[in-house]
Design brief:
Shape: globular
Radius of gyration: 23 Å
CATH superfamily: MetI-like
CATH class: Mainly Alpha
Strand order of the largest sheet: 1-2
Helix content: over 70%
Order of helices and strands: HHHHHHHHHHHEEH
Length: 275
């Protein structure tokens, strides 16, 4: 018989792991509130004394911050929309339609997530330059979707397979076509999975840096993650303004998880019983 682990041991382990993950977040917020002349003090301070808003004033006074935030919002929302428009029908086809090569397609989606983004950056730059999509919102949205689409299909496929096929057959008997079955019957039953895919696609689009740096040549369409790179200069790094900007752009991420936490967790575990 396996020895039973006391609940307090599990709680303590979870607390230590959580604290380890949250430590960089706390240090980022703490640095953003620390006076610039004390950020690189020989003795690190766990609590900023005195607390200052100077770093936030510097960050908010940067002329390109508002434009960069708007760019990131447009790109992230576009990635979510395109990912769901392409991912839901593709996941439905792989889950319901019997066709040759479906297993190979799922394997290809898994393999597509293995290469790092830097491997895709150069080919995407060449293709989008020839197509006239470089340095544009559609180009960045398409590039980020290459990262979110495989994950979305893999998440939604087991969710769809957990939906009883009898519901779809009954709808088809009543005269509902395949698009109607997907929109009126299946889609309402997979809301947690769709919300999870949408939330994670938004986070990936919001935090993407490499494509924003390589596919956008100017600040007109560059996301806010690229703006962070401007605080790193040849003669040093403006840590206060950098951490203040990073804290500001983390707020939407926290809000997305706070609002959709129940859906994201439920969507990632939906369909885990039936494969």
């Amino acid at each position: 018989m396996r020895p039973r682990v006391h609940p307090w041991v599990l709680t303590a382990t979870a607390a230590v792991v959580t604290a380890a993950f949250l430590l960089p977040v706390y240090w980022m917020a703490k640095t953003s509130l620390t006076p610039p002349d004390r950020i690189q003090a020989p003795t690190p301070q766990w609590v900023p004394t005195p607390v200052t808003g100077q770093n936030y004033s510097t960050a908010l006074g940067y002329s390109g911050l508002t434009r960069a935030l708007l760019n990131s919002l447009v790109i992230s929302c576009g990635v979510v929309a395109l990912t769901l428009v392409l991912g839901v029908p593709l996941a439905y086809a792989l889950a319901r339609i019997r066709m040759r090569g479906s297993g190979a397609m799922v394997l290809a989606l898994l393999v597509a997530q293995l290469p790092p983004a830097i491997v895709l950056a150069a080919p995407l730059f060449i293709l989008e330059s020839r197509a006239g999509l470089a340095d544009s919102y559609p180009g960045l949205i398409l590039a980020d979707t290459t990262l979110t689409l495989p994950f979305t299909v893999i998440v939604l496929r087991p969710v769809l397979r957990s939906v009883p096929p009898e519901l779809e057959e009954a709808a088809q008997i009543d005269g509902c076509g395949l698009p109607g079955v997907l929109l009126r019957v299946v889609l309402p039953l997979m809301v947690p999975g769709v919300v999870a895919a949408a939330g994670l696609s938004f986070l990936i689009g919001w935090g993407e840096f490499l494509f924003g740096l390589t596919l956008a040549q100017g600040p007109d369409v560059q996301p806010v993650t690229v703006l962070l790179n401007s605080f790193v200069g040849q003669h040093g790094t403006s840590w206060g303004a950098l951490m203040a900007t990073a804290t500001l752009i983390s707020i939407p991420v926290v809000c997305v998880f706070a609002v959709f936490q129940r859906f994201i967790v439920g969507g990632l575990t939906a369909g885990s019983v039936r494969g």
